[in-house]
Each structure stands twice: as structure tokens, then as C-alpha cells.
Design brief:
It contains two helices and five strands. It has one domain (about 15-95): SH3 type barrels, CATH 2.30.30.100. It has about 110 residues and is an alpha+beta fold. The chain is about 15% helix and about 40% strand.
Length: about 110
């Protein structure tokens, strides 16, 4: 019975939802694939779809892992599993593509005489 349910889930059309995860050490951006017919408006919906097998591992596609101290890409993976217990927060991002980061120069450095 469960195998039939898993086969049905795999055969359903999906859409990509870009999300950002934060852990104590990393910022992770990636895609959660959700069924097309699901509105997926709540953060809990995104987490549920990322952890479909209830294994405690969130599955992300096209994942990029950034260091928190440098905000540089540490590595990219086509599929990445993230321990659900290590996630501090989840946030949706633009669906079209990864957003570009905006760096601001502190003005205090330029106002000194």
C-alpha cells in the first residue's frame, strides 16, 4: 500500500519552491519540490514537503551552502539532505532564481575626517 502511495507521489507534477535555511554554521539555499496542486503558503507546508518520508532529513535540490562568516559559497550539490533538527529557521525566496546578494558599505568609514 505504501509503495503505491510513493509511486503516485513521484508521478505527480511538481513545482519548485526556493527556500533559505539557516543552521548554526551555514546558510543554505535550495529548492523544495512540491506537488503542483498544493498552494504551499505556510512555512510548515514547505518543511513537510521537504521531509516527505518523515525521516528528519530535509531534501533540497540545487542546493548551495554558504559560510555565515564570509557569505561565500562553500559548495553546491544537486541533492542535499539537511538534518531537520539543526535548522534554526526557514524562509521562502523568489521562485524564479537565486537572488543576488546586496552588500552595503558602512557610511561611517567614509565620514571620518
Amino acid at each position: 500500500m505504501e509503495e503505491k502511495k510513493k509511486d503516485q507521489e513521484k508521478s505527480q507534477p511538481t513545482r519548485d519552491v526556493w527556500i533559505e535555511l539557516r543552521t548554526a554554521l551555514h546558510r543554505i539555499e535550495g529548492i523544495v519540490r512540491v506537488p503542483s496542486h498544493t498552494p504551499c503558503r505556510r512555512i510548515s507546508d514547505m518543511i513537510w514537503h521537504a521531509d516527505r518520508g518523515a525521516s528528519g532529513i530535509l531534501q533540497l535540490a540545487d542546493a548551495a551552502v554558504y559560510g555565515l562568516d564570509s557569505n561565500k559559497v562553500l559548495f553546491r550539490k544537486p541533492i542535499l539532505g539537511v538534518n531537520k533538527g539543526s535548522v534554526l529557521f526557514v524562509s521562502p525566496m523568489a521562485a524564479e532564481s537565486e537572488p543576488s546578494l546586496v552588500w552595503e558599505i558602512p557610511l561611517s568609514e567614509y565620514t571620518r575626517n
